[in-house]
Every structure is written in C-alpha cells, then in structure tokens.
Design goal:
585 residues; alpha/beta; Rossmann fold; 3 domains; 8-stranded mixed sheet; 7-stranded mixed sheet; 18 helices; globular
Amino acid sequence: MAADLNIRITGGAGQGVHTVGAIVSRMVVLWGYHFHAIQDYMSRIRGGRNSYSVRIGSDPVRAGRDESDILLCLSPDHLPHFLPKLSKGGLALADTPSASPPVLAPPLKQMAVSAGSPILANMAGAGILACALGIPLDLLAPLLAADFKGDFLEKNRKALALGEEWAREHLGEAFRLPRAPSSPRVVMSGNEALALGAIAGGCKFAAGYPMTPGTGVLSVLADNGPAVGLVFEQAEDEIAALNMAIGASYAGARAMVATSGGGFALMVEALSLAGMLETPVVIALGMRPGPATGMPTRTEQGDLDFVLSAGHGEFPRLVLSPGSPEEAFDLAQHAMDLAEAYQVPAFLLTDQYLADTIVDMDPAKFDVRPVRRHLVRGTEVPRAENGRYLRYAVTGDGVSPMAVPGEPGVTVVAGSDEHTEDGHLTEDHDARIRMVEKRRRKGEALAQRTLPPLLSGPPNGDAVLIGFGSTKEVVEETRRILAREGIAVAAVHLRQVWPFPAKEMAEIAPRYDAALTVENNIGGQLARLIRRESGAEIAGTVSRYDGLPFTPETLAPEARKRIWEARSTRTSRTHGAKGAETSGS
C-alpha cells in the first residue's frame, strides 16, 4: 500500500521548528521517499505559533494536507490548536505532565539538557521522529555534518540518540516505512528554483530590498550569483532597486528584482519608465495578504489585478505564474529571454505558499537552455541618413534593434519622455502616434508567444477547475479525488496570465457543464479576467482568503458542492426555457 504520511512540527519562533522539518524532509528522501513541505509562521522573531508540515509519499507529493498523522509540539501550549487536526489513529508528542492518549509526553527538555544545551529539544524530537519512521540515525550523519560543526555537532548527535532511545521504548511500529529504492533528488524551495532559473536564463544583475516572501529569491542570487558573474546589490529601498535594474539592463546586463506587493507598489513609477524606455527587466513578485502590511508571512493571490494594470500609460508586459518549483525554474529562464526579445518588463508572479514550499525533484527535469542574446552589434546597428543610431526604429513587429552603450560609433539615446526614432525628446503628435502604435504592435507580437494553458483530465465533462500559479498541484490532486468519485472533472493551469490565452480559454470552458476558478482571493480576479478576455462563462469561484493555502482535502468537498450547485442552476434554467416554449406554443 502506497505511503501517505503527514508530519507536523510546531513551536514558537526560535525553537528550531524549521531545523527539524528540514532534517525530516531530507532523511525521508535518503530513505527512498518523496515529500512536500510547507510552512505556516507568524511575523515575529521569537514565540508565536509556527508549524512545518512534511507530507511523505511513495510517489512524488505536490500538495499539503490539513490533518497530521504525527504531531510534534515543541511548545505544549500549542496542543489545543493543533490536536483537533490529528488524524484518526494519529500520534501527538508534547513534553507535558497532563498527557493522555493520543498524546505521549517525551521528556524533551530533560533530553536537551542531558545532550548539553537546553535548545536541543528540537533535535531530541527529530530523533523520536526518525525512530517512529524506522529510519536509522546513521543515515542522518551527513545531514548533521552539513548543518553543524565542532562541539555543537556532537551535542546534536547526542540529542538525536536520546530521542531515538526514548522512542524505542515507547513507540510501536504503526508509522514505520520500509526502505525504498532511491534515485538522485534535488531538494529545493520555490524561491530557490526561481532564483536559479533566473541565473540559468543569463541574469547578471539583481537588486532588491528584503521583503517577505521575496527575500528568499534575493538571498539565493546574492549567495550563488557572484560565482557566475552576477552582481547583486541590496538597495536602500524598492524604488532604487528597480531603477538600478533598469540601469543595468540599459547597459546590456539581463537584470531582475524580487519583492512583494507593498514593495512593488513603490516600483510602479519605475515600471512605467521601463515601458517607455523599452528596457527589459524581470520582476519576481511574491504575493501575500494585503492591503498594506496585511499578514506579511501568509499567502494570497490578491495582486493579479494590480500587476496587470500597474503603471501609468499603455505599454506591453509579460506576466507568468509558475505553479511548482520546477515550473518556477523553467519560467524564470523564459521570462529572462522574452523580456529581452521584446524589450518589455516581465513578471514572475508567485506567492508565499509557492515561495516557501520545499519538495524533492528529479534533477533531469531541470532543462537549462542556451542563453541567446537579442542585442545588435556592429553593422547590425540601424542608423539614419545622418548616421544616428535609431534606438526606437519603427519596425513591423514593433521591436526595435537594441544596442548598448559602448558599441563603437554608437550613441544610445534614451529618456522618459516620448521620443523620435533616434531617442530624442519630442512633442510632435505624428511621432507620438508612431511610437504608441509601435509599442502596441510589440505587444501583439509578444502575444503570439503566449504559453497555452495546461489541461489535464477528460476533454469534456461535468466541470473544469481553473487556477493560476500556486494552485496548480492542489487543483490537480483535487481533480483526481473527484474522478475517483465518478465526477468527470478537468483541471486547467494558467502558467501565463498576460498576454492572456483568450482563444484557448474560449475553446476549453464551454466543453464542460460548469467552469469554476480556484483562487486565493475573495474577488475572483482570475474569473473576471477570463470573462473579460475570452467571453467564456465562469459559473463561480472557489475562494480562500484566510492567509492559508488550499489543500486537496478541503478543496474537494467545496468544489463538489459548487459543481452540483452549477449543475442544478443549469438544469433549472433548461427546464424553465422548455416550459416557456411549451406555454408559448
């Protein structure tokens, strides 16, 4: 029988919840299993109520679960909050004198002191979890050596051993996993995959101001970028960050920034500058609940409308919405390439859920494509009769040949005002018309490269569930749950939301009795976009906006309910129309 086991570690900030979660995730990979890890954490440095959930499977796992099979509470006072979500037959562990089944009380504090430090209760808990899963501690040796050094390494080893010793005496074999064949895996978060994809796509300059959840992207770029010639700058604010990236791009470097909604709000004027300069730049935007600071460490998909309409004036843009770490890696390369090919700002629209999701991946799935630059040099540089370089030459597809400063004999003129073909400021109305129409044609040419939606499931049937970004894998697992119940449901994932794939959506939606969007927002922003751009009928939206991501076990019953409601409404309308026809005859 295939394994599907969910472990939840809880505690306050500073208690090492993340450390235990990371060790459990990696050790199950070494034991031959797959995992999906998600984090729920409060915006505070110490204390609070945080959790790290690791869902373990025999097959690749791509969505979380609400119920936990094993619950490790490093703060016993968290039990009342998490215990109601313990599965039937589950096990809870907490160092509390008032424990009663299903709660066991390992002496975590005592084991930590015995190991040499009161902060090692988390590692004692990790030893208990390893024993519960049947994983020998010698398998963890390389993991510990990678994370700890010197005397503290030995103390961690002792804490693990004490935890395992207690577990051998008090736990049975209910959760033990037999060792499975293993293959090379890469363990990576969504943020890490996106940043490495940008590097693979030729990014050579990055700037940003730390803001959750975009900070993880900046950290990877700062740590790994210099080895491949990437220059990283922590800017004084988000306004400076995007302006720096635009300057680097003007100089010929592929450039990006990473931020969240509040930071992007400060970048909007510079976004319009990039539109007028026709300067490529990539913006990784990790959504979180707003407005204002909102819930800074939680997740939401509330910035879709904002990203599509941000900036004054009209100019083309590219908006991609990866649905998994693998897709984040791939689409980051795509964004780098198309931003330069069409000289537009490109967005990678993620959220806290995808940013912090950690999974194991097949390294063969990472397709690193050759970086092809879209710059002109030498005799390719177009010039007017007077010899001036035509930076904004009017072309059939609206894309002007782009040279960079330093090209011999070329003066690159660019500014924030409307301009002539050679880049000089103008208030001539005919020139303005030519430039506006040129930028529009560029957007139309970009639309010809739109990535189509990804459809899984039957080509027609009871319903289609449509999502963008991080809902991809949750919707797919939900589709499979409903299919086992005999409901013919398809899933559509929009990995690109602008230019919008209107033709494809207009063809897909009518093939199903009901089309529903699945969105982490209250307004149904994707549903409105689909209706506006494709004219397709969307029966409604399954929404979640409490700051937490969807899970298949909560999405499936809600989707089932909405599908039957839509079917009943359609049946009522059909019967009403037939009755009216009969009455009229």
